[in-house]
Automatic annotation (TrEMBL), chain A:
The entry's keywords: ATP-binding, Hydrolase, Nucleotide-binding, Transferase
A Pfam cross-reference name: CT_A_B
UniProt domain Carboxyltransferase: residue ranges: 25-278
GO molecular function: ATP binding; hydrolase activity; transferase activity
Protein name (Swiss-Prot/TrEMBL): Biotin-dependent carboxyltransferase family protein
Domain of life according to the entry: Bacteria
Family annotation (InterPro entries): CT_A_B, Cyclophilin-like_dom_sf, PxpC
From TrEMBL, chain B:
Stated name of the protein: Allophanate hydrolase subunit 1
Domain Carboxyltransferase, chain residue ranges per copy: 1-204
Keywords: ATP-binding, Hydrolase, Nucleotide-binding
Keyword Nucleotide-binding applies: yes
GO MF annotations, alphabetized: ATP binding; hydrolase activity
SMART domains xref list: AHS1 (SM00796)
Stretches assigned to coiled coil: none
Keyword ATP-binding: yes
Organism: Kribbella qitaiheensis
Lineage, uppermost ranks: Bacteria, Bacillati, Actinomycetota, Actinomycetes, Propionibacteriales
A Pfam family reported for this protein in Swiss-Prot or TrEMBL: CT_C_D
Length: 278, 218
């Protein structure tokens, strides 16, 4: 039975869960929700299993029609026109319209019971880099909803701050190839204010700023990359790896985001300012 | 062996040679340390990721099935790993039938200073081992005992077809699906090295032995 029909998708809306862990040695990226904290909260608010699939909505614009009565929760970037950080009931026939977010980039919609599409390699996540999992949402598509297994948590509202609209500070630890950069390069990395490039996506956040000075030239043999790796390609400008990043990469990793900074990084908008702090 | 930091819950183990990587990876996967959730071998390194300590609640940790460990505990466990000799994990030899009609076959022959039939003979004549995977789901970097050293194409193709058999550097590979690529194409196979609806989806996994054969025409 279908339970939600997609009327409009906005720039990008995908189905996401916790991703495909443990298969990186086969070349399968992790994928999953870019902002894992908002995703987890949305599922908790409707009493879903922590790995249930939800929708990840990039910069609003999604319009959904409820085919049946549903319990939902919306978290992450606060879109105009929809309830936030609280469970809500959507009646059959109602239309849910996500306006542009007041701040942040990615909004999560959990439906009680989860989005019930077939898993691919153990996950229902759309992986835009490798093409695994369901395709991004399309207008006219219907989304089946699974059965609820757990009781509702009895939470009316989760007190969560909106993603900041101004400069965001991302905490880092030195990465495996810190020594490929001069001390001046490292200082430049942690003191300058970068602009988030419009060329960012679920694979990575690209930053514009002053190129970093390298201590050594030459090529690095490809090596494994984990979530939050900050690669410095020959341009000298950082690329921060998000959920759909490749499992290996050939450019030196100067630093890693700390785990709590990953959701903050996933909410950065093109044009927003970001800075690193050690 | 060096242990390099890779974020809150991973360490990058750096080794001297690809053989050492294969031996270390084989030992690690045979008896993974407590808390390890992902192991990614590459050309000179093995990335080892443990369950994150701070990011998950107790209930979620239980569901993930992996207890969390500190990076200090992880490094101690990784230092204690004794690499095993020998590259391959044993098991079945995967045969890959190849039609050797790749667009770069002639170029590769010229690079090696031999005929195209010599290239085919060399490619089919030895046993290859999947050293590591990456680039795309199911893409394996295969090495052989003889030293291959093939430069990549000067400008990568925007579309390499599914099943293309290729060479680059010391490696051979099979493109699991259509994608851009800069490797030299020497042939093609109908064998699907990655199929998300099959179990296992990926035919290549680190340590697997592979032999290329000349496909029966027609």
């Amino acid at each position: 039975m279908t339970a939600l029909t997609v009327l409009e998708t906005g720039p990008l809306a995908t189905i996401q869960d916790r991703g495909r862990s443990g298969q990186a040695a086969l070349g399968v990226p992790g994928s999953g929700a870019c902002d894992p904290a908002s995703y987890a909260l949305a599922n908790r608010l409707v009493g879903n299993h922590p790995g249930a699939s939800a929708l990840e909505i990039t910069f609003g614009g999604l319009v959904l029609h409820a085919d049946t009565d549903l319990t939902i929760a919306i978290t992450g970037a606060p879109c105009i026109g929809v309830p936030l950080n609280a469970p809500a009931v959507l009646r059959a026939g109602e239309v849910l319209r996500f306006g542009p977010p007041r701040s942040g980039l990615r909004t999560y919609l959990a439906v009680r019971g989860g989005i019930d599409v077939p898993p691919v390699l153990g996950s229902r996540s759309t992986d835009l880099l490798s093409g695994l999992g369901p395709a991004p949402l399309q207008p006219g598509q219907t989304l089946p909803i699974g059965c609820a297994h757990n009781p509702m948590p009895g939470v009316d509202l989760a007190p969560v701050a909106d993603p900041p609209a101004g400069e965001v500070v991302l905490r880092v630890t030195p990465g495996p190839r810190r020594d490929w950069f001069t001390d001046a390069g490292w200082t430049s990395f942690i003191t300058q204010t970068y602009d988030v490039s419009s060329n960012s996506n679920r694979v990575g956040v690209r930053l514009d700023g002053n190129p970093l000075e390298r201590a050594r030239d030459g090529e690095l043999a490809s090596e494994g990359m984990a979530l939050g790796a900050i690669q410095i390609p020959p341009s000298g400008l950082p690329v921060i790896f998000l959920a759909d990043h490749p499992v290996t990469g050939g450019y030196p990793v100067i630093a890693y985001l700390t785990a709590p900074s990953i959701p903050a990084c996933a909410q950065l908008r093109p044009g927003q300012s970001a800075r690193f702090s050690c | 062996m060096r242990f390099l930091p890779a974020g809150d819950s991973a360490l990058l183990v750096e080794l001297q040679t690809l053989d050492e990587v294969l031996g270390y990876y084989a030992a690690l996967t045979a008896d993974p340390p407590e808390g390890v959730i992902d192991i990614v071998p590459a050309a000179r390194t093995v990335l080892v990721t443990a369950a994150p300590q701070s990011a998950r609640s107790g209930a979620e940790k239980q569901q993930a099935g992996a207890p969390s460990v500190s990076l200090q505990q992880l490094e101690r466990a990784l230092r204690a790993v004794v690499p095993v000799a020998g590259q391959s994990s044993g098991g079945d030899l995967l045969e890959i039938p190849v039609v050797y009609d790749g667009e770069d076959l002639q170029d590769v022959a010229e690079l090696l200073g031999c005929s195209t039939s010599d290239v085919i003979e060399r490619h089919t004549g030895e046993e290859w081992t999947v050293a590591f995977c990456g680039f795309a789901p199911g893409f394996g970097y295969l090495t052989a005992s003889a030293s291959w050293d093939i430069p990549r194409r000067k400008s990568p193709r925007t579309k390499v077809p599914t099943g293309a058999v290729a060479l680059a550097g010391e490696f051979s590979g099979v493109y699991p699906r259509e994608s851009p690529g800069g490797w030299q194409l020497i042939g093609r196979t109908d064998l699907r090295v990655f199929d998300q609806d099959r179990d296992p989806a990926a035919l290549f996994h680190p340590g697997r032995r592979v032999r290329f054969t000349v496909a029966d025409p027609g």
